[in-house]
Structure formats: C-alpha cells, structure tokens
Predict the 3D structure of the following.
Amino acid sequence: MSSAAVEKKTKSAAKPAALKTPITEMFGVKYPIVCAPMFLVSTVNMVAAACEAGGIGTFPALNFRPIENYHQAIKDIKAKTDKAFGINIIVQKSNKYQQQQMEIALEERVPLLITSLGKPGEIIKLAHEVGTKVFCDVISLDHAKKVADLGADGLIAVGSGAGGHAGDISPFALIPTLVSEIGLPVMASGSIADGKGMAAAFSLGADAAYVGTRFIASTEAEVDDAYKNAIVDAGSDDIVNTHRVDGFPGNFIMTDALKRVGLEDGLMETVLSKSKKIKKWIALSRAAKSLFAKPDGKVSYKTVFSAGHGSGLIHEVKSIEAIMNDMVREYREIKKNLP
Ligand SMILES: Cc1cc2nc3c(=O)[nH]c(=O)nc-3n(C[C@H](O)[C@H](O)[C@H](O)COP(=O)(O)O)c2cc1C
C-alpha cells in the first residue's frame, strides 16, 4: 500500500448534531468520543483539539515531567479550552509522582481522572470530594468488580486489539458482560477507528468510544511522520503482541526496529523468568528503560510504534475534528440502515 500520510483537507460540511449518552451528560460534551491517553503521544494541543471538536481529550500524567511541567500542561489546556478533559494516572508504587499528580489534578478541578493498574480507592474518595469523576481501566469482570466496589464512576473496557497494553478478552464479550454485571457507564477501548466500530460498541452497551490509534494518525499528533505512516500503511495483521518493549504485553506495529528487538525471549531470559522475582525485575527494568530511554536507545516507545488492530482501518491522516465528525456521521448512517 502506498504511504498515504498526506493531509487530507477537512471537508467544510456542517458539523454533525450532538449525540447524547450518559457519558456526554456526565461531562457536558457534544460527542461520546474520548481521545484516549497515550504515553509519549498525547500533547496539550491534541487534548485541546479533541475537546474543541466535541469529544473529551485526555493525557497520561507521565507525559509531562518534571511535575512543574505537568501542572503547566493542565493550565495550558485550560487556556485553550473550557471543555471537559481527563488525566490518566498510574496507580502503582512504580509511579513515584502519583500523589503529586493526583493533588494537582484535584486542585485544578480536572473533570475526569482515569486510573490504570493498582487500587484506586484513595483517588476515588478524594476526587469525589471535589466533584471529579473517576473512570478505571479494566480488562476483566473481576477487575471491574473491584473498582466498582471502591466507588468508580465508570469503567474503561480495554479489550484485545487495543493499542498500548491491551486486555485479552474480545470487546464483543467484555463490554456486554461489564454492562450487565456492573451497571456503570462503560467506555469501549480497542480498535475503534470509525463509525462502524462506534456503532458496534454502542450496540454492545457502551456509552462512549475510547479511541487511541486513530488519533495518532491525525494532523495534530506531534509524533514523527514515520509513526503516522506506519499506522496508515499497516494492516491489522501487521500488529503483534509482545512484552519485549517494556516488559508487559502490548500491541505494536511489526516494523524493522521491532524485528531487531525480537518478539520472543532469549534462552537466558526464559530460564531466569521462571523465578517470579526475577521476572518482575526484568519487566520493571524494561519499563524503566522504555520510559527513560534516549531516542536512539534500542528498546523505547520512541523507536517502536504501539498501535491497535484498528490500524488496518486507518487509511489517511486527518484533523481530529474531521475524525470525530466522520465517526459521528458514519455511526448515524449505519444506525439508520441496520436491518
Ligand atoms: C502509543 C500508545 C500509548 C498508550 N499509552 C497509554 C497510557 O499511558 N495510559 C493508558 O491508560 N493507556 C494508554 N494507551 C491505551 C489507550 O489509552 C487506549 O486504551 C487504546 O489506545 C485504545 O485502543 P485503540 O488504540 O485500538 O483505539 C496507549 C495506547 C497507545 C496506542
């Protein structure tokens, strides 16, 4: 396939009408589309563009370091948009900035916090005192029950095929299970790249589309063109799942850089990882390398590209506004024409 990362001029068609779900009501936004938090990808401009386009922009707190830059990023987003936005905080000891990230977000009255990993009980309690909503990433029913018991306002169902650290369960099974068993609002994450995916997610009971990879191939994404081109050129079968990049299984585009890293462990790693402690150490040291590696380092999010199976549905780079408008229009068309 030819490299199609040529910016397409945004059509000047009228903006689609608002779409109402419990999540658009909760955050006062026009469309139930979240520009998902992406490590080393989400920027102030992307978040603001997603909010101004009618969705909810979000970013991982760790994208801005040191902590002063994180605080400044929140202020910069607020200067660019008065709409609801969200921050993803990793709730685990490995995130040593966790407490400060949470305190600043709550002081700034950020409308949405998204938690990954760990036990989000304290964040939920403190967030509720200032009116901030907390949605938790979950990959299974068990996991969802735990965060629901802790008082989460909603769930992010991270299904197989998502960019980043995907779950193992197909969204076709995960979303309806969470909807019927938990009863909280659900954002659907994993391979949603157009109105067809959005229609499918809503049919399964989701209340919002939580979209990552599609927004990397956007005009506003401040990543290398090579990354955008790789997504545009990739088919779904070019996405591989490996733990070799940062120690945890994640979805990546099979590029030459990833081939050099390799998908499988060597004999030594296999033997060493039989011990739980050593296995954890290997994973954490890979994660640290990936977080802090220099751009020319061997294993890093900067040299290999994470993306979901939905890459196969992405054929051009468009503005964030065009992506959202096209998704909503296509969703409505599909809904109208369903048998
Ligand atoms: C490059 C990349 C980085 C990501 N980083 C994070 C992250 O820091 N925190 C997080 O909760 N999810 C992260 N994700 C997952 C996304 O938030 C979202 O769940 C996922 O991209 C949805 O699947 P999709 O890419 O198929 O649309 C990342 C995804 C990608 C592609």
Remarks:
- Residues 36-39, 41, 60, 88, 116, 137, 158, 162-164, 189-192, 210-213, 306-308, 310 surround flavin mononucleotide (CB under 6 Å).
- Residues 1-11, 289-297 have pLDDT under 50 and may be disordered.
- The chain has 14 helices and ten strands.
- The first strand starts at residue 33 and ends at 35.
